[in-house]
Design brief:
- Helices cover 16% and strands 33% of the residues.
- By secondary structure, it is of the alpha+beta class.
- The strands form three sheets. Strands 1, 2, 3, 4, 12, 13, 14 and 15 form an eight-stranded antiparallel β-sheet that branches. It has a four-stranded antiparallel β-sheet with strand order 7-6-5-11, with no helix packed on it. Strands 8-9-10 form a three-stranded antiparallel β-sheet.
- The termini are far apart.
Amino acid sequence: MSVAEKSKKKAGGLGETVSVIVQALLLALVIRTFLFQPFSIPSGSMRPTLLEGDYLFVTKWAYGYSRHSLPFSPPIFSGRIFGSAPERGDVAVFKLPTNTSIDYIKRVIGLPGDRIQMREGVLHINGEPVEREKLGVIDDPDITEMTRPVDVYRETLPNGVSYETLDLSPNSIGDDTREFVVPEGHYFMMGDNRDNSTDSRFSVGFVPAENLVGRANVIFFSIAGGASPLELWKWPTEMRPGRILNWVD
């Protein structure tokens, strides 16, 4: 084989490699934009449902698509297309209204037109108290982030969606609020860790439908202790195998 033929073959092989890489990147972009997007949980605001170190997939098509479905949220259109409204009780990822470069994850509590209020730690929707049952206490710092037992409750929304919430303090600032009236095209979001969640009761405010990114679907990996999934040597002691492939309720 001549030098020219060898060079041509080498160039052809390089071109094929580049082509495969470009196709893989485009496929990954399509999947991330329209189907699934991975997220990690950076804080304890959704405990005990989601823990720091949980890695989950979010379904992008659940609520249709907005400009925030695309990387970097380019302002190419407004509103949502192919949209479906979130259901009360969904755990959803959304862009923070005051800074759309930041992703938040909370539970959808209030729908457009709802009146939402906390009274003595009990959630009220449209003037009616939400069913709330004390289950006992959790004495596991990995779940509560506390070195003492924490009260845990089961809350059941009017549509039957049920989940656990933590009560770190019986008289926290978020246990008694004014009544919030959710505007059209907006949602009221709350964390399950009621006394340690920055949500619609506070600075987050009402979340526009356009800011919704997707619905949390399944935990595909979980590791404790602030460890990274890439730190394989920590898996034997820090990985939470019981949480892997758990559906998010």
